[in-house]
Amino acid sequence: MPFDILLALIVGVPVLGSFVLPLAGRIHERLRHSLAFLLVAFSFLAAVRLSSVVFSGQVVRFSASMPFGMDLSFTADGLAVFMALASLLVGLVIVIYSFDYISHYANRNEYDMLVVLFLGSMMGIVFSSNLIFLYIFWEMTAIVSWRLIGFFRGKTDVQRADKAFLVTFGGALVMLIGFLMLYQKTGSFDLGVIKEYFKTQAFPSLALILILFGIFSKSATLPFHTWLADAGVAPSPVTALLHAAVLVKIGVYVFARLFIATFPIGAVWHVILPWVAAVSSIVSAGAALRETDLKRIIAYSTVSQIGFIFFGLSLGVEIAIAGGLLYILMHGMAKAGLFLCAGIIEQGTKTKDISRLGGLFSTMPLTGTAFLFCAASVMGLPPFGGFFSKFLIFLGCVQGGQMGLGFVFLFAALMTILYLLRVFTVVFFGETKIAAREGTPVMVACVLVLAFLSLAAGIWVRYPLDMVQQATTQMIRVIP
Amino acid sequence: MLSLLILIPLAFLLLMNFLTLKGRRMAFAVVMALSFFQIYAVFCPTIMANRPLHGLASVFDFTLAVDGLSRIMLLCIAIVIFIALLVAAPFVKEEDKRFYFAGLMILELMGLNGVVMVRDIFSMYVFWEVAAAASFILIALQKKRDPLEGAFKYLIFSSVATVFVLSAIAIILLISGDTSFAAIREALRVSPHSFLITLAVGIFLAGLFMKAGVMPFHGYLPDAYASAPAPVSILLAGVVTKTLGVYTAMRIVIDLFGFSASLQSILLCIGLISAIFGALAAMGQKDLKRLLAYSSISQVGYIFLGFGCGTPLGIAAAIFHIFNHTVFKSLLFVNAAAVEDRTGSLDMSRMSGLASRMPVTGTTSVLASLSASGVPPLAGFWSKLFIVLALWQCGHYGVAATAVMASLLTLAYMLLFQRSVFFGTLEKGLEGVVEAGFGLTLPAIILAVLIVGIGLFFPYIVHTVIFPVVSY
């Protein structure tokens, strides 16, 4: 199959296929599940196939012409393929986990459709090389997360879902104004054209700020972070999908796509943005230390870790950028694992309040182990994957000569260790308050897979690092 | 052949009275057939070609013409009349009322078609009043207290608008000596900047703003929309105010007066006020139909923003948004009708979680709400994007940015509506609710397909339908 068609299919199959799922669900539950799995698996395998070409240095393009410079065009370069692989891998595990998790709730047909549609739109964002289509897929993820966060339909659930939708939609609208400014300057929404234009021209700071609004609101960076913790009312696989693996990474990815791969930003931003990230990281780590709701702790931890990723990407140092990208993968796997463990604990004990939990290790040894592994990766302990990404970012920080920032983030990393250890000891050790059994085999297998992947990615770090290095080089040096 | 679109409804209106009691039950089918004929006619070049009629029919010949703008309006009118009739069944139950209802719909169809096609300012006024009179009676058809009040308010506002428009026509007649568009254009070309003309334009537009219900001329509109029977609300929100107010304003400005800087700033100003304050007012509503009425005001504001650019792109965007608004607002009113039919109430504080009981209504209402908020990839996104692009190209950056942010307000009240009616847990006492009947789900599905279809195939729609409109 020609690679450009394959590229279009990675996006098209899950997006269009998702609408078949409710119909399949009317025939049989299992048919819908298998179909959902197949759609995501197809995208994943196609991305794997594509990666072999892309990481040999080729760039695959697909495009269809539209009026007003709004061509539907997809581009697969190293950055896009790496991002696609990272999110689809985690997405696939989450889809499998969902089968058991949601088996006893209402609206299951809608759920599967939305999850697959979400992953499809995510692929749309990753591969789009046209700002309008980027925006369209961006909003599609917002619609889907609105429905998914309000999945349980309770009053607070729906209110929080509305909050998340409004915050991200508002940010996206501001971003759209920024895109319009670029359109006015360059006469096109195509990233290639825009890139050419800004090789010789200075990038307008106002547009940069406007676009950052959108990115920060989606990535739940301070001061737009509150929706993320509130969205913890969603089903656990959804929080894993939204908070850990995919949604919040959209902002980070678009940051890399626009401000590293497409147009260079002024030197002053390489100082301002890391500081914004630092404040976001510290404040949310503090919040994570104080919270008693299991999912809110993990959610705040996500905000904090996203700060690390922004820090790496915005330093303007090559090795830190590579670290930031690697962080996306490592954090995605480990954090998804944590959320899914939280889901097992929540379903077993019917509570998310850690002050009412304790001693679960004796009854849930597998979940406990998985939780520990994933937490270790998020903390950045060697030889887990998270260590290498954190290390690269600090290395870049030292190379860039921003020692002050380095210490702030070192402190944030210390806080990460603190709050994760606190959660682990409170929930799994001490006296048993609520007895609970281990989750279903499928769910436990899923968290174990993620825990294993977190460890394996550290031991065989060579492979992801290879991809990241190529992607970074392509972004910074090679002009396609 | 254009006069067919007026003469055939007229003939049916007269002939219907000769039907026997049994035959009168077919009245709805007759009107539906008329709307189908109109949809066919819009796409049929022989009918759209303006050839004069011969023989007896030539007595009724007006100065008629259609361009792309008129065709889109004709299409909107036909779609909305058809949808309104489908919806009408559960709301107009008595046999004789149904007959009157059908007759009034034909009258409305005729009046609106006339407004859209005539190229003579006085005939335009006559048809304008025909359509308005039909709507007064339609609102008050049930002869209950609230509808009568709503109809009365509408009547009073319309009378003031009529006085304005008639005075403006009188002044124009004074200057040009004739009422046909061609003659007026000629006269205006000779003396373009006289005080009288400025006065006429001002008065004329003030009347039309009232008819369009833009802020601050909107006083009657929420009452009229909310108190009218469901099918009539669809008709009013979908085409009546759009044709009598917005279309007429576009027609006289584009064809007769032309854009001037001050006119543009008035239009932009009115548009911005309506778009923002309409949305803010919508947020505070408890009654579902009143919320939709304020949302209508807000969306008309958007249309005026596009129109106020005065550029081809802006006008095309405004027309596109008229069409999209017709589709999504009709759909929302159909959803409201379904809710009213099944729960007997429109009070949003007393319902919740209906989506689980009414899946079709719930799903289609989500699509309509998101389209209204301009969320991609639905139809409303594209027209709003074009409006913003047009504003941006004209250099109205502040207006464009405000228009974009007004979308956030739209989304806010639409989410409020979704949360209190469809999304959420089922309210106690609503367990017995079942999905509305075929007459309410079928139009909802048709309109939802239009929303998604236009959203996905927008390049085709834009190239073949929207842009030819302004290529004259």
TrEMBL record, chain A:
Source organism phylogeny: Bacteria, Pseudomonadati, Candidatus Omnitrophota, Candidatus Velamenicoccus
Annotated Gene Ontology cellular component terms: endomembrane system; membrane
Organism: Velamenicoccus archaeovorus
Entries under Pfam families matching the protein: Proton_antipo_M, Proton_antipo_N
Membrane-spanning segments: 6-24, 36-59, 79-99, 111-127, 164-183, 203-228, 240-261, 267-290, 357-379, 391-421, 442-461
Residue ranges of domain NADH:quinone oxidoreductase/Mrp antiporter transmembrane in the record: 128-416
Keywords: Membrane, Transmembrane, Transmembrane helix, Ubiquinone
The protein's name: NADH-ubiquinone oxidoreductase chain L
Protein topology in the membrane: Multi-pass membrane protein
Superkingdom of this protein's organism: Bacteria
Keyword Membrane: yes
Keyword field contains Membrane: yes
From TrEMBL, chain B:
GO biological process, one term: ATP synthesis coupled electron transport
Keyword Transcription carried by entry: no
Topology relative to the membrane: Multi-pass membrane protein
GO cellular component, one term: plasma membrane
Occurrences of domain NADH:quinone oxidoreductase/Mrp antiporter transmembrane (ranges): 120-410
Cell compartment(s), UniProt: Cell membrane; Membrane
Listed transmembrane segments: 6-21, 28-49, 69-92, 99-118, 124-142, 154-175, 195-214, 226-250, 256-281, 302-323, 366-392, 399-417, 437-462
The organism's place on the tree of life at top rank: Bacteria
Molecular function via GO: lyase activity; NADH dehydrogenase (ubiquinone) activity
Pfam families documented for this protein: Proton_antipo_M
Record keywords, A-Z: Cell membrane, Lyase, Membrane, Transmembrane, Transmembrane helix
Family: Belongs to the CPA3 antiporters (TC 2.A.63) subunit D family.
Protein name as catalogued: Hydrogenase-4 component B / Formate hydrogenlyase subunit 3
Organism (species): Velamenicoccus archaeovorus
